[in-house]
From TrEMBL, chain A:
Matches recorded under SMART domains: TGc
Bias (Low complexity): 891-900
Region (Disordered): 891-918
Protein name per Swiss-Prot or TrEMBL: Transglutaminase-like domain-containing protein
UniProtKB/TrEMBL annotation, chain B:
Xref: InterPro entries: ATPase_AAA-3 (IPR011703), CbbQ/NirQ/NorQ/GpvN (IPR050764), ChlI/MoxR_AAA_lid (IPR041628), P-loop_NTPase (IPR027417)
Gene3D superfamilies recorded: Magnesium chelatase subunit I, C-Terminal domain, P-loop containing nucleotide triphosphate hydrolases
Residue intervals of the ATPase AAA-3 domain: 38-168
Listed name of the protein: MoxR-like ATPase
GO function terms (MF aspect): ATP binding; ATP hydrolysis activity
Source taxon at top rank: Bacteria
Organism: Gemmiger formicilis
Residue ranges annotated for the ChlI/MoxR AAA lid domain, each copy included: 230-300
SUPFAM superfamilies named in the record: P-loop containing nucleoside triphosphate hydrolases (SSF52540)
Amino acid sequence: MAGKVGCALLLAVLFAAAAVSRTSFAVFLVSLAVLLVGFLAWYVRTLRRDVTVTLQLPARPVHPDEDFAVLVKLHNNGRRPVPELRVVLQAVDAESGTAIELPCGAMLAPHQCADLRVTLRAAKSSLWRFRVREATVRDPLGLFAAHCAVPPQSRELCVLPPAEGEDDGAGTKPQNCAEKVTAAGCDLTDGVYDLRPYRAGDSPKLIHWKLTARVGELTVREPLGATYRADPAGSVLAEGADAPQQLLHFGQAAVKRLRRLTRRKDTDPATGLVFVDRVLLPRTKAAAHPMAETAADLLISELLALGLLTALNGAFALALPIWVWLGVAALCAAWPALHRVPLSKAGRYGVALALAVGYLVLLFAVQQPFLAGAAQCADAVRLCLDTRFNANFVLSASPVSAQMGLFALLTAVPFTMFLAALTARHTDALLLGAVLLPIVVFTLLAGTGRAVLGWLLLLPGWLGSCAAARSLVRKRLWRGKGSAVYAANLQTHRINQRLAGVGMAAICAVLFLPALALRPVLMLPLNALQPVTDKICAAGLSAAIEWLPKISGGALNFHVSAAAGGVEDGSLTRGDGLALTGLEDIMVTTDAKPEETVYLRGFIGVDYDGTSWQAGNAAAFDSAAANWKTDGDGRLAIANLPFLRAAYSGAQPRQMTVQRLHANDAYTFAPYNAYFNDYYTPDGDGAIAGQTVQDDMFYYFPRKQAKELLAARDDDDAGVLDRLESAYAAYVRARCLDVPDGAGYDAIDKELAALVKERKLRDDDIDGRRALVRSWLNEHCRYSADAETPDDTDPLLYFLSESHTGSSTQFASAAVLLCRMVGLPARYVVGYAAPQSLFTAAGDGSCRAVLQDDNAHAWAEIYLSGQGWTPLEVTPGMTAELTEGELAADAAQAGQNAADSDTPLPARQEADSPTETPQSVPLLWVLPTVLLLLVLALALLRRARRTPLQTVQAEFCALHRKMRRCGLAAEVSSDEAAFAEFLQTHCPQTDRETVQHLLDAVQAAQFAPDPCTAETAQEVRALCRKLRKKLCRRTV
Amino acid sequence: MQNINEKALAVTAEVSKAVLGKPEVVLKIMMAILARGHVLIEDIPGVGKTTLAQAFARAMDLTQNRVQFTPDVLPSDIVGFSLYQKETGKFVYHPGAVMCNLFLADEINRTSARTQSALLEVMEESAVTVDGVTRVLPQPFTVFATENPVGSVGTQMLPESQLDRFMVCVVMGYPDAEAEMEILSRQPRRALLDRVQPVMDKNDLLAMQQQVDAVYMSDEIRRYIVELSRATRQDSRLMLGLSPRASLAVAGMARAAAFLSGRNYVAPQDITAIFADAARHRLCLTEQARTGGDTVQNILDDVLHTVPRPRPEKPFHGR
């Protein structure tokens, strides 16, 4: 039971880790656990067939106060070890019904025989029925138990009454009493009891008070066999010594409780049976292989240590040098070897002391690099936390692999010693689990999951050592240390441990492949759970963000920089970040309600390096800007250019305050056409770095207004700004038209060039080119919020040429690339898009919008001469924000497409309703199938696990149901004559004896004292099926 | 067991030779004897109560005494008395009528309450105490008491507490026409009894009683008995429900019934067969029920009908 609870708990922990982290390894782990549990259930069911249990009692009756031995003979017929065999021996007093249960434990090596010898002593004359109540085997991990076949019949042992003259101490008194009574004229031979003086330990119930009063000495009745009945007080409850009978009149709960209390687990003189001794005697010696055993120990400890090291190294990217592995492997081999060196006790302690001192001295000598290594390891862990949860932990030192290696190796010394001690002695699985499980869960949650090899090593080692440690230690049954029995038992125990450990590790390794196959099936429910786990994660993080600074007084400032719905700046793959739904990122306040979507620019990517977008080259921009002869900072002048030009027309700018709540503080989130004062520093050509000097309050022109203003400006005015603009335009053309190399990109480039040619777009037809890009994306790609990109592929190319499904990051990146291919300078922007509807009017006439993490967005911007950078929205679902002109161009393009092909707008429609995901199709049939299979397996398992009694009941119930359908009245019970008559009349050619035999067998199975045998169950099943068939025929 | 069981059945067969047409009554009384209980026969005179007792005594080779209870019967007539003997100068105990294996107490309701209680005490303790000396009664010991339900002039009905001590109450009733014709054909009357041959002795009976005690009763059956008792206690039509002693009586009778059926365990049909006989005399109707026309018998039928019986085709879960 405990094993099953533990197993369920472990599975739950693993599943929770898998659900939260969704790293493929966690899913793999859960698959493996599921397979392993199934395997163990099967294993233990087959294991029980190998074990036979027989009971042997003394052949002759025994005398009271004479020791006698009850032998439970155990035999393992199979090649597998039986790590734990639990036998419950039951003795029932035939007279009083008192039941005594003696639990004994044993273990059996392959092909081994052993005897459990229970020595008992009877205190008084009676008839005892002995039987093996149950014999249970357990699997190596102790999760499942199965009952072995035990002899159903009980064996009887007669304890003779005490011989004449033996009772010398009190021999005279009974005669006296008898004399007194017989003298009074009553024949005692007809009485139901004998009389004798009171002895210490006699029950007060037995005292004959009337006689005691007459004789003047305590006199008790000695029952003569089973005829003993009631005491003179006439109390009903004292009738008989059978406790359950007394309890007839109490409530059910009280009956249960009292029965539990009265059922004796052990023996004592009051019950008449005294327990003397128990011992496990191996009859055949288990075969020992010392070399193989040492190899088993070594294998498990190496697996554990190297697995853990590899897992940590991979998960936290520690980059440990190779000599650390070699060192740990050597340490693992050294500890057991040291353990086997024959040394005296004093010598052992001396060596241990010397080693400890040496270790401390070494630690002291290298303390500087050791501490540095520790700090670097901590940094590595923090870095992983940063990337995983977008946290802002401060990193200190740059890693030096040698220092980290030193730290790892020196830490490994005590740890490997601990592992080696655990595996060599195989003592405590709980301790091992307590140490390893937190490490595993933490690594799974915090690490990057790139540690598959480590996990593959660690898991067999862990399970193997758990299995070895589970091997039962019941030294109470082994006799004293130094005896031959003890040595033989110890040897069996060691062999069992090693075999179980190595066997478990091997099984685990074998199960890897099917577990890999099972992974996609498990992935489906995890995917379904994803929104829930996301919410839980986000809520947890939000709470941490809110409460950590309060609790720690500002020392722990767990700050989340959320951008683009959990996607890191410039990154195109999901999964490295966490979408924090419900977390408030930014509050925007404007002086009037905006007429269009407000785009707040954060990160700006210029160069695509094959995996992510990178910010522009700041140094190149600085040197370029130096030549543009601006007053003050050239970079700011460029950033302010659209605002300044629009402001020259005399229009009144709008005002906007951006308050950063939990948004990434590396950037200033600013609208288009805003004015930046001197406190802002543009980071090269792109993002404005975040600042804390002042509030982010901007004067800006809405995009539509700016476009009109800029278009209407006087072309003849060739001022400073014009010169600056043309210089910047040249710079942009030089920088923002790069397309990455590669065959995939070339193909798209050619396709687009063909399209441009086909549509006869002129060089200055910017609207046409923009519409071309948009229509190309709409035709080829569709939207999916949780599209995944496989590792080690170019996410952009994968999106463009293979998956064609993606979110705003993919769409924006693709748009940037396509624009560059058709000759429009473009950049990639990550920030926030605040739709018009989000703004609500505040009391003072201003409007306010709180942007949450799901308002994070990525889009493309193109450079238009005279207009500056303008956003280009391509993400489906955001097209509502397009301007009328863009929509008209799109419509024209779409019309052209419709004329070209017979399939009008299929992709577009799909893109507008991104509901159907490809994963939901297999989900539809895989889940029901799996459920069906599970139910089927459970039903089969239950059927196979039926006891003979349950079989009889089930078969008879089925027969009864059938009879009910054939017209038997519901209230007719099977013990009534009408039942048998019905069967006889409705089943042709059925004689009375058969029916009566069946009914007797069924009744006996349920009500008789002897447990139902398998043969009876078979017979009843056959009879019931025959009768049911006959009933069927009749009804047909 | 089979062997002894056959002996018990042989006894009933022998008794049935003398008591014609009443096999169920004979069987029930046999069960009560096997369960060490005492029998109350409620019936009018002349239906063969004495013959029944004598037939049992003969068939089982038991000593039998009979006392016709009248208002002037004294306790000492039952339990015996000590008489001073001049020759020896000692008091000598003269055993009463109860010193036998099978005691027939005829019309027990006609005697004084004192005598009734003396007998009931003997029944309960299986021992008599005269002048401070306790004497154990011979074993086995069974009392057959008869009660005349009509003609209640000058009778002292046994109170409920005393009725409770009888294990079973049977009603003999008139024999049917054929049986009565058969009885008439036997002249003299003793000839009927002469046909009864002893088929066992009291040691066999003692052994059988032990066997009956060893009959196994499963938890379900015990629960069933308890539920039946509780149902009578909760029935609003009854003033008094079944006592725990009654439950014990039901259990004992059921064991004996199972024994007679040749089983070593109690099955539900054993309970249903004997429940009414073991319970009838212990129940007391309320005034409303009495005036409403309810009888104890139909209440018992209701109880047997409503309490779910353990049935193999509807197994109890959690056994």
